[in-house]
Amino acid sequence: MCGLDKYVLDLAAGECSCRKWQMSEIPCPHAISCITFKGLNFESYVDDCYKKEAYIMCYQEVIHPVNGPELWERTQYDDVIPPPYRRPSHRPVKKRKRRAADEDNRSQTHLSWRGQVQRCSNCGGEGHKKSGCSQPKKRVCDMIF
Protein backbone atom coordinates (compact mmCIF):
# COMPACT_ATOMS: atom_id res chain seq x y z
CA MET A 1 0.00 0.00 0.00
CA CYS A 2 1.12 3.54 -0.76
CA GLY A 3 -1.19 6.02 0.95
CA LEU A 4 -4.71 5.15 -0.18
CA ASP A 5 -3.49 3.35 -3.32
CA LYS A 6 -2.86 -0.39 -3.44
CA TYR A 7 -0.39 -2.03 -5.82
CA VAL A 8 -0.07 -5.71 -6.67
CA LEU A 9 3.53 -6.91 -6.75
CA ASP A 10 5.07 -10.14 -8.09
CA LEU A 11 8.73 -10.28 -7.07
CA ALA A 12 9.41 -13.54 -8.92
CA ALA A 13 8.18 -12.15 -12.26
CA GLY A 14 9.48 -8.61 -11.63
CA GLU A 15 6.07 -6.99 -12.12
CA CYS A 16 4.13 -4.26 -10.34
CA SER A 17 0.65 -2.97 -11.15
CA CYS A 18 2.03 0.57 -11.53
CA ARG A 19 4.05 -0.82 -14.52
CA LYS A 20 7.17 1.29 -13.80
CA TRP A 21 9.21 -1.82 -13.01
CA GLN A 22 8.28 -3.46 -16.34
CA MET A 23 9.07 -0.29 -18.30
CA SER A 24 12.52 0.49 -16.85
CA GLU A 25 13.67 -2.88 -15.47
CA ILE A 26 14.53 -0.97 -12.26
CA PRO A 27 12.35 -1.79 -9.24
CA CYS A 28 9.74 0.87 -8.53
CA PRO A 29 9.33 2.40 -5.04
CA HIS A 30 6.63 -0.16 -4.19
CA ALA A 31 8.95 -3.04 -5.09
CA ILE A 32 11.84 -1.49 -3.16
CA SER A 33 9.73 -1.21 0.00
CA CYS A 34 8.58 -4.82 -0.40
CA ILE A 35 12.15 -6.11 -1.00
CA THR A 36 13.54 -4.27 2.01
CA PHE A 37 10.59 -5.37 4.18
CA LYS A 38 11.34 -9.02 3.33
CA GLY A 39 15.09 -8.48 3.88
CA LEU A 40 16.07 -9.62 0.36
CA ASN A 41 19.06 -8.49 -1.71
CA PHE A 42 18.02 -5.45 -3.75
CA GLU A 43 20.66 -5.87 -6.51
CA SER A 44 19.30 -9.27 -7.57
CA TYR A 45 16.08 -7.56 -8.75
CA VAL A 46 17.83 -4.96 -10.94
CA ASP A 47 18.40 -5.85 -14.60
CA ASP A 48 21.99 -6.80 -15.54
CA CYS A 49 22.39 -3.91 -18.01
CA TYR A 50 22.36 -1.42 -15.08
CA LYS A 51 25.12 -3.14 -13.13
CA LYS A 52 28.78 -2.07 -12.97
CA GLU A 53 30.03 -5.15 -14.82
CA ALA A 54 27.92 -4.30 -17.88
CA TYR A 55 29.19 -0.70 -17.86
CA ILE A 56 32.83 -1.82 -17.66
CA MET A 57 32.35 -4.38 -20.43
CA CYS A 58 30.69 -1.80 -22.67
CA TYR A 59 33.41 0.83 -22.26
CA GLN A 60 36.50 -1.40 -21.98
CA GLU A 61 37.68 -0.34 -25.44
CA VAL A 62 39.29 3.08 -25.85
CA ILE A 63 37.10 5.64 -27.57
CA HIS A 64 39.34 7.85 -29.68
CA PRO A 65 38.35 11.50 -29.97
CA VAL A 66 37.43 13.01 -33.33
CA ASN A 67 39.22 16.10 -34.65
CA GLY A 68 37.26 19.36 -34.80
CA PRO A 69 35.82 20.73 -38.09
CA GLU A 70 38.83 23.02 -38.64
CA LEU A 71 41.12 19.95 -38.78
CA TRP A 72 38.96 17.96 -41.21
CA GLU A 73 40.38 17.12 -44.58
CA ARG A 74 39.27 19.57 -47.30
CA THR A 75 37.68 18.15 -50.46
CA GLN A 76 37.09 19.58 -53.94
CA TYR A 77 33.31 19.62 -53.38
CA ASP A 78 31.28 22.51 -51.97
CA ASP A 79 30.06 22.35 -48.39
CA VAL A 80 26.64 20.82 -47.96
CA ILE A 81 24.11 23.39 -46.77
CA PRO A 82 20.42 22.91 -46.03
CA PRO A 83 17.88 24.19 -48.55
CA PRO A 84 16.48 27.68 -47.91
CA TYR A 85 13.32 27.80 -45.83
CA ARG A 86 10.37 29.17 -47.77
CA ARG A 87 7.38 30.18 -45.73
CA PRO A 88 4.13 29.15 -47.45
CA SER A 89 1.93 32.05 -48.49
CA HIS A 90 -1.33 30.20 -47.93
CA ARG A 91 -3.20 28.74 -45.00
CA PRO A 92 -1.69 25.41 -43.86
CA VAL A 93 -3.56 22.28 -44.90
CA LYS A 94 -5.27 20.25 -42.20
CA LYS A 95 -3.43 17.04 -41.43
CA ARG A 96 -6.66 15.08 -41.06
CA LYS A 97 -8.27 14.17 -44.36
CA ARG A 98 -12.05 13.75 -44.28
CA ARG A 99 -13.55 10.54 -45.61
CA ALA A 100 -17.02 9.82 -46.97
CA ALA A 101 -18.06 8.34 -43.61
CA ASP A 102 -17.22 11.67 -41.90
CA GLU A 103 -19.72 13.52 -44.07
CA ASP A 104 -22.53 11.27 -42.83
CA ASN A 105 -21.60 11.98 -39.21
CA ARG A 106 -21.46 15.70 -39.86
CA SER A 107 -24.95 15.78 -41.36
CA GLN A 108 -26.34 14.20 -38.19
CA THR A 109 -24.75 16.76 -35.89
CA HIS A 110 -24.70 19.92 -38.02
CA LEU A 111 -27.83 21.94 -38.77
CA SER A 112 -27.98 23.48 -42.23
CA TRP A 113 -30.11 26.29 -43.65
CA ARG A 114 -30.01 24.65 -47.08
CA GLY A 115 -33.53 24.35 -48.53
CA GLN A 116 -34.99 26.91 -46.10
CA VAL A 117 -36.48 30.22 -47.19
CA GLN A 118 -34.86 33.31 -45.70
CA ARG A 119 -37.21 35.60 -43.82
CA CYS A 120 -36.44 39.22 -42.94
CA SER A 121 -36.85 40.15 -39.28
CA ASN A 122 -37.37 43.82 -40.21
CA CYS A 123 -40.22 43.68 -42.76
CA GLY A 124 -41.22 40.01 -42.60
CA GLY A 125 -40.59 39.50 -46.32
CA GLU A 126 -39.07 36.36 -47.82
CA GLY A 127 -35.85 36.00 -49.81
CA HIS A 128 -33.65 38.40 -47.85
CA LYS A 129 -32.35 39.08 -44.34
CA LYS A 130 -32.43 42.20 -42.18
CA SER A 131 -29.00 43.31 -43.40
CA GLY A 132 -30.18 43.35 -47.02
CA CYS A 133 -33.62 44.87 -46.37
CA SER A 134 -34.57 47.96 -48.42
CA GLN A 135 -37.34 49.03 -46.00
CA PRO A 136 -36.52 51.60 -43.30
CA LYS A 137 -35.43 50.00 -40.07
CA LYS A 138 -38.07 49.51 -37.39
CA ARG A 139 -37.62 51.52 -34.22
CA VAL A 140 -37.63 49.59 -31.04
CA CYS A 141 -39.99 51.27 -28.60
CA ASP A 142 -38.18 52.31 -25.47
CA MET A 143 -40.04 51.21 -22.39
CA ILE A 144 -40.33 53.77 -19.63
CA PHE A 145 -40.10 52.43 -16.14
UniProtKB/TrEMBL annotation:
Q: State the PROSITE patterns in the record.
A: ZF_SWIM
Q: Name one GO molecular function term.
A: nucleic acid binding
Q: Which SUPFAM superfamilies match?
A: Retrovirus zinc finger-like domains (SSF57756)
Q: Which UniProt keywords apply?
A: Metal-binding, Zinc, Zinc-finger
SWIM-type domain segment(s): 7-39
Annotated Basic residues bias: 87-99
Q: Does the keyword Isomerase apply?
A: no
Enumerate the Pfam families for this protein.
SWIM (PF04434)
InterPro entries per UniProt: Znf_CCHC_sf, Znf_PMZ, Znf_SWIM
Task: Give positions of region: Disordered.
Answer: 80-113
| Signal sequence, renumbered to the chain | none
PANTHER family documented for this protein: MUTATOR TRANSPOSASE MUDRA PROTEIN, POLYPROTEIN, PUTATIVE-RELATED
Q: What is this protein called?
A: SWIM-type domain-containing protein
Q: Which organism is it from?
A: Arachis hypogaea (Peanut)
Source species taxonomy: Eukaryota, Viridiplantae, Streptophyta, Embryophyta, Tracheophyta
